[in-house]
Amino acid sequence: MKHIPPYNGFEQGPIRPPSESESLLIRITRNCPWNRCTFCPVYKEEEFSLRPLEHVLNDIDTVKAYVDGIVESKQSGARYYGDFIKDGVDDEMALHAAYHFVAGGMKSIFLQDGNSLIIKPEEIITILRHLQQSFPMVKRITSYARSHTIARISDDNLEKMAKAGLNRIHIGMESGSDRVLKMVKKGVDKATQIRAGQKVKRAGIQLSEYFMPGLGGESLSREHALESAAALNQINPDFIRLRSLALPMAAPLTAQFEAGEFDKMGEVATTSELLLFLESLQGITSKVRSDHVLNLFSEVNGTLPADQQKMTDPLRRFLKLDAEEKMIFCLGRRTHRLSRLEDLKNPELRDPVAKMCAEHGATEDNMDQIIQSIMQRFI
Question: Of the candidates 160, 232, 150, 143, which has an alpha carbon nearest to the alpha carbon of residue 196?
Answer without folding.
Answer: 150
